[in-house]
From TrEMBL:
Family designation: Belongs to the glycosyl hydrolase 25 family.
Record-level Gene Ontology MF annotations: lysozyme activity
Cellular location(s): Secreted
Keyword Signal (UniProt): yes
InterPro entries: GH (IPR017853), Glyco_hydro_25 (IPR002053), Glyco_hydro_fam25_subgr (IPR018077)
Signal peptide residues on this chain, from the entry's feature table: 1-37
Role played: This enzyme has both lysozyme (acetylmuramidase) and diacetylmuramidase activities.
Source species, domain of life: Bacteria
Pfam families: Glyco_hydro_25
Listed Low complexity bias regions: 41-61
Top EC category: hydrolase
Gene3D superfamilies per the UniProt record, alphabetical: Glycosidases (3.20.20.80)
Protein name: lysozyme
């Protein structure tokens, strides 16, 4: 199955290839142009100069057809990063990863049917899966994945893809808690996750100021805790957090951090956080029981510490 992740990456690579082709053609044209003609026309030189120094692709806003390729309700973890950063996000594909320690995955309906017994047999100990997005969308595979992971002995939890421009943090936290984000102390249920990352449908910070974004996150956190007694886990990337919250330290003492940094080295932390609890180190991992690419994650600690997080005994 061709995943939406694969499509996003293909578009990013196509942009790079297209840009390279255009620059190559311009270079060939310049070589073919008589030198004396170019030297005799300062105006022509001034006109041609910008083509030799194009705006870096990573600095450009996503073009409309790329944004439109993900329909509302279809976002997945890392979707915003792939769309807004394009090829810059893909430095992950060149080296093997350290898969030691307590390993996990995160999934949504884009992974299709999952054999959770095979996943557990592969050594995966925990998984978070998409439950909701905004206030109108529930993942179509959640009601299958959630109990199946539990039955296979995978410590599992749910995540909510935030849409801060759609409704308040409180409204979305209630929607999440009522549609898969609840918690119980049963050795196999992790606290819910707030997936707060670049907007895959438009402007990266959802049109909110840094202060407004901080307030939105606080609103979600307070409401989720009131509903479940748990501190919601924050999933984010360093670049987005620093840009859209101003490297805010207001959640560091309250929420466990799940950092998205696709690299073979140690992850870079968002400003304001001093330690990570979980680390998403690639979006192109492979795991027995899952067809195609899947996000791979590592827990910062032993299995006993993972169980303590699940049971709220840390």
């Amino acid at each position: 199955m061709l995943s939406r992740r694969s499509s996003a990456r293909s578009r990013a690579r196509w942009r790079s290839a297209t840009l390279a082709g255009v620059l190559g053609a311009l270079f060939a044209l310049l070589l073919a142009t008589p030198h004396t003609a170019a030297a005799s026309s300062p105006a022509a030189q001034e006109t041609a100069a910008p083509a030799a120094d194009p705006t870096p692709l990573g600095d450009a806003d996503p073009v409309p057809d790329e944004i439109g390729d993900i329909e509302e309700g279809e976002a997945f973890m890392g979707a915003g990063t792939l769309i807004h950063e394009g090829p810059a996000a893909e430095g992950q594909f060149i080296a093997p990863f350290d898969t030691s320690g307590v390993q996990g995955i995160d999934v949504s309906h884009w992974q299709g049917s999952i054999n959770w017994g095979s996943v557990r047999g592969f050594g995966i100990q925990f998984a978070w899966m998409k439950a909701t997005e905004g206030t109108s969308f529930r993942d179509s595979s959640f009601n299958t994945n959630y109990p199946a992971a539990h039955a296979a002995g995978v410590i599992r939890g749910a995540y909510h893809f935030a849409r801060p421009n759609v409704s308040s943090g409180a409204v979305q936290a209630n929607y999440f808690a009522s549609n898969g984000g609840a918690w119980s102390r049963d050795n196999l249920t992790l606290p819910g996750v707030l997936d707060i990352e670049a907007n895959p449908y438009g402007a990266s910070c959802y049109g909110l100021s840094q202060t407004a974004m901080r307030n939105w996150i606080t609103d979600f956190y307070n409401t989720y805790k009131a509903r479940t007694t748990r501190d919601v886990v924050i999933y984010t990337s360093p670049g987005w957090w620093n840009s859209c919250t101003g490297s805010w330290n207001g959640m560091a003492s309250r929420s466990p951090l799940w950092v998205a940094h696709w690299t073979t080295g140690s992850p870079t932390l968002p400003g304001g956080f001093g330690v990570w609890t979980a680390w998403q180190y690639t979006s192109t991992g492979s795991v027995s029981g899952v067809s195609g690419n899947v996000d791979r994650n590592k827990f910062n600690g032993s299995r006993d510490r993972l169980l303590a997080l699940a049971n709220n005994t840390a």
